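Sample pair:
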Amino acid sequence: MQQELLLKKYGRKQSPQDEVLSDLGKFITKKRDEGNEILICIDANESMEDKNSKIKEFANKHGLFDIAGDRHTVQIPATFERVNTSRRINFFLCTGEVFINVLAYGMAPGRYDKILGDHRAQYVDINTNELLQLNSHDISSPSGRKLRSTDPKCTKTYIEKLLINLDKHNITQRMESLLK
C-alpha cells in the first residue's frame, strides 16, 4: 500500500502488484517459449478465493498449477496470520511437468508461526531426477579417491606428476619468470 501511494504521488497509475505480475508474466512466457519449466514461490498478498483475485487470474492466464490447492481436495490452512486476519496468500505455482513430479507438499504447524513470523513455512519436494532427466551419480567415498594429501608417498607422486605436466607446457619456466 505504501508503494502504491508513493507511485500515485508521482503520477504512476498501475499498482505495484499489477506491474510485478505483468513483468513476471512476460518472463514466464519467454522462459516457456525457450522450453523451460517454471516453479514460482510467491507471497501474493491475496487469496485465490478473493473476488477478482489477480493471482488466480495470473495463474490461469499462464497455465500454472497451485501445488497445494490443486493437489489437495481439503481446505488448505492459512499461510498468513495476524491478529484479525488469516488467509492462504503464499503459493507454489508451477507448470504441468513440475506439477506431475511433485512428490510431497507440506507446511509447518500453525504453532510455529509465532517463532517464524506471520507467514507459515512451506515446502515442496520434487523428483528432480525425472523432471530434469538427470543421470545422478553417487560421490565416491574419500577412501576411493586417488589423491590422499596426508600420505607422503601419494603427495610426492602427485607433485612429481604435476611438475612433469607443467614442464610439458613450459609452465614452470613461465612461473619462474613471473616470480623474478
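The chain has a mean pLDDT of 80.
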